[in-house]
């Protein structure tokens, strides 16, 4: 005796999967952009101290260039237009980059080490589920618009 399984709405699922495969790149771009905005907002409102405000102002999202359809990647970066403020040269000729020092930490003159605040890293990891939910909901909205 064979077991018959009846799945209602299976045709709709197949159609939705086909539409996802044909999802325009602009939908993917929009979802990725909304996701990185969550991390950007968190990084700008982080726990780290920025007395001048330049580091907070300089945080920008940068899109990765790719030829793969359906892929969009954004990174958070300090805006290079602020490099004249961020790059410092010591009397010994060593260069220091302020955003990197704040993110990763630095060695002191006395040989000690000051740990970094990891504000960019934490803005992504602490908000991972919120970023994922934002991306998924945006893609779902875009798929619904295509129907």
Question: Which descriptors apply to this entry?
Answer:
alpha+beta; two-stranded antiparallel sheet; 7 helices
Give a description of the structure.
The chain has 147 residues and is an alpha+beta fold. The chain is built from 7 helices and 6 strands, in the order αααββαββαββαα. The strands form 3 sheets. A two-stranded antiparallel sheet has the order 1-2. The chain has a two-stranded antiparallel sheet with strand order 3-4. β3 (87-89) and β4 form a beta hairpin. α2 packs across α6 and α2 (25-44) packs antiparallel against α7 (128-146). The two termini are 40 Å apart. The mean pLDDT is 86.
Briefly say what this structure is.
With 147 residues, the chain is of the alpha+beta class. The chain has helices at 10-21, 25-44, 54-58, 83-86, 98-104, 119-125, 128-146; strands at 59-63, 74-78, 87-89, 95-97, 105-107, 113-115.
């Amino acid at each position: 005796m064979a077991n018959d399984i009846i799945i209602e709405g299976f045709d709709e699922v197949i159609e939705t999967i086909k539409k996802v495969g044909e999802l325009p790149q602009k939908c993917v771009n929009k979802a990725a952009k909304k996701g990185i905005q969550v991390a950007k907002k968190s990084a700008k409102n982080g726990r780290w101290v920025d007395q001048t405000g330049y580091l907070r102002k300089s945080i920008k999202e940068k899109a990765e260039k790719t030829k793969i359809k359906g892929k969009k990647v954004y990174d958070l970066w300090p805006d290079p237009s602020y490099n004249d403020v961020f790059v410092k040269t010591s009397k010994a000729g060593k260069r220091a980059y302020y955003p990197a020092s704040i993110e990763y930490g630095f060695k002191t003159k006395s040989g000690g080490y000051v740990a970094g605040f990891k504000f960019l890293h934490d803005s992504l990891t602490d908000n991972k589920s919120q970023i994922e939910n934002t991306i998924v909901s945006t893609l779902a909205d875009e798929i619904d618009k295509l129907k």
